[in-house]
Design brief:
It is a single chain. With 127 residues, this protein is mainly β. The protein has one domain: YVTN repeat-like/Quinoprotein amine dehydrogenase (Methylamine Dehydrogenase, Chain H), CATH 2.130.10. The chain contains no helices and twelve strands. Strands 1-2-3-4-5-6 form a six-stranded antiparallel beta sheet, with no helix packed on it. Strands 7-8-9-10 form a four-stranded antiparallel beta sheet, with no helix packed on it. A two-stranded antiparallel ribbon has the order 11-12. It is globular, with a radius of gyration of 14 Å.
Length: 127
């Protein structure tokens, strides 16, 4: 993907890159760690190390037939949230990026954003 536009949200810690072919990539990172995750329009999450140079560590399918709409990194625990269409998944990087919980929405709206509650990171928020 060759990005033609980028959106930066420094308050929430993500960057969205878009290309001209309706493809997008959502990047988020863990403060104090040397990696970031990228969710792509084909439903795959890629994990990259950026210690000395950028190196892909792992890729895994987070959603089938739809794009990653949002991701959030837990500031105190080893979790990453991802959303795609109606699904929210909780990934644990300390367990080899295992999906430890899947939340399926009982409504017709697409989940457009996920986040951890900054006051209590055991609570997740979505819209």
């Amino acid at each position: 993907m060759r990005p033609i536009s980028a959106t930066l949200n420094s308050r929430e810690g993500w960057i969205q890159l878009k290309s001209g072919r309706n493809q997008s990539c959502l990047l988020t990172h863990k403060k104090g760690k040397k990696w970031f995750v990228a969710g792509t329009s084909d439903g795959v999450i890629h994990v990259y190390n950026y210690d000395n140079r950028i190196q892909k560590l792992r890729s895994f399918r987070a959603a089938s037939d739809c794009f990653i709409t949002s991701m959030a990194v837990n500031p105190t625990r080893s979790y990453v949230l991802s959303s795609a269409y109606h699904d929210i998944k909780l990934w644990d990087w300390s367990k080899g990026w295992e999906c430890t919980k899947s939340f399926v929405q009982e409504h017709t709206d697409t989940v457009s954003q996920v986040a951890f509650n900054p006051m209590d990171t055991n609570i997740l928020c979505f819209r």
